[in-house]
Design goal:
By secondary structure, the protein is of the alpha/beta class. It folds into 2 domains: 2-131 and 307-328, Rossmann fold (3-Layer(aba) Sandwich); 143-305, Rossmann fold, CATH 3.40.50. The protein is built from 12 helices and 12 strands. It has helices at residues 14-28, 44-49, 72-79, 101-109, 166-176, 189-198, 211-219, 238-244, 259-267, 280-289, 297-305, 308-328; strands at residues 2-6, 34-38, 57-62, 84-88, 112-115, 126-127, 153-157, 179-183, 202-205, 223-226, 249-252, 275-277. It has a 6-stranded parallel β-sheet with strand order 2-1-3-4-5-6, with helices on both faces. The protein has a 6-stranded parallel β-sheet with strand order 9-8-7-10-11-12, with helices on both faces. Strand 11 (249-252), helix 9 and strand 12 form a beta-alpha-beta unit. Helix 1 packs across helix 12, helix 3 (72-79) packs parallel to helix 4 and helix 5 (166-176) runs parallel beside helix 10 (280-289). The chain is elongated, with a radius of gyration of 21 Å.
Length: 329
């Protein structure tokens, strides 16, 4: 099955990474799909003017900003000829915050519509949480190798947007005597100096690292933390790299980008798997009192449950089903 993926590609962004993880997982399992990753097609006119034969299916790896030119009308033109599957990354919960008119229109058109969190106003959308990289920390070093500190080390990863609270992480870890590993692509020298001023036991990686490198460094930490305070659309991909490291994961329960994981903990699981914290004081207390473990069984379970290996299998089922329904119609 030949799939044209309309997605950012070969750039340092989460949407491109998502497509890459899916392609890699399909290849590793020899699943019956071949992707043509087409960043040019983010401009629909490039897609429509390309002379190549039509694929078996078009997959829109949809981000509202990147795919702003892909209107429902243009998607419907494509869907008239081949099945279209959309993964929509910018969802709201559909209750307190309804989804956009464009999102709802695309949902009505698509042969399959994939979301990463429960969505109340898109009845029939396919829930598929963001995948966790299938890496078990094989490249990790012991946290003592990060400068030889005789202290626990906290790690995190993600672009250093203010709402990710890296300043507060640095200050809080220094307060409780922990080191800090920040994998912060595009961090400036001023950022690095400021974080090290707040916590002298800080190592910063300002480059965009591969998933293997990220997971390896995080697996070498005592625990990871994602202390985001935001109401952004969609769900967090960065926290999946913390889960992939299979160490304890701390996260602020109030951040809506973790809503899918929090709901899964509350509804699907017998007990909390992520170490949810209510506020920064709770976080400080937990760092001082929670047991330090070599690996976290609950996080290992999450890593397996949402592994990219499993997600890729489900994607291929969805793609094949969409093609089959078109052939039968």
């Amino acid at each position: 099955m030949n799939v044209t993926a309309v997605t950012s590609w070969g750039v340092d962004c989460g949407i491109s990474e998502y497509a890459g993880h899916l392609q890699d997982a399909c290849r590793q399992q020899d699943l019956p799909v071949t992707f043509h990753m087409d960043s040019r097609a983010l401009d629909p006119q490039a897609f429509f003017h390309d002379a190549r034969p039509l694929p078996d299916l078009v997959w829109l790896n949809y981000h509202a900003g990147l795919h702003s030119r892909w209107t429902p009308e243009l998607v419907q033109q494509v869907q008239a000829s081949v099945p279209v599957v959309i993964t929509f990354h910018d969802t709201y919960d559909g209750e307190a915050s309804p989804n956009s008119d464009r999102c709802k229109a695309l949902f009505q058109i698509a042969d399959a519509f994939i979301v990463h969190e429960p969505v109340a106003d898109l009845d029939g959308a396919i829930l598929l949480r963001q995948g966790v990289p299938d890496l078990e920390g094989a490249y990790s070093r012991n946290w003592m190798d990060f400068g030889g500190w005789e202290r626990p080390v906290l790690g995190t990863v993600g672009f250093p947007f203010p709402w990710k609270n890296y300043d507060r992480l640095a200050a809080r870890t220094e307060e409780v005597g922990w080191g800090l590993i920040l994998i912060a692509p595009r961090a400036t020298s001023a950022d690095i100096d400021r974080w090290r001023g707040l916590n002298p036991w800080t190592v910063v990686y300002p480059d965009f690292l591969s998933a293997a490198e990220v997971v390896g460094r995080l697996a070498g930490c005592t625990a990871t933390a994602f202390m985001y305070e935001c109401h952004n659309t969609g769900t967090s991909g960065a926290i999946r790299q913390g889960i992939a490291a299979r160490k304890p994961v701390y996260a602020l329960a109030g951040c809506r980008q973790f809503r899918d994981l929090l709901l899964a903990d509350q509804i699907e699981e017998p007990k909390s798997l992520i170490r949810w914290v209510e506020d920064w004081n709770d976080f400080r207390v937990r760092l001082k009192t929670d047991p330090i473990v070599p690996w976290d069984p609950g996080i290992i379970y999450l890593a397996e449950r949402d592994s990219w290996r499993r997600q890729a299998q489900r994607y291929v089922e969805i793609f094949l089903s969409a093609v089959r329904r078109r052939d039968e119609s």
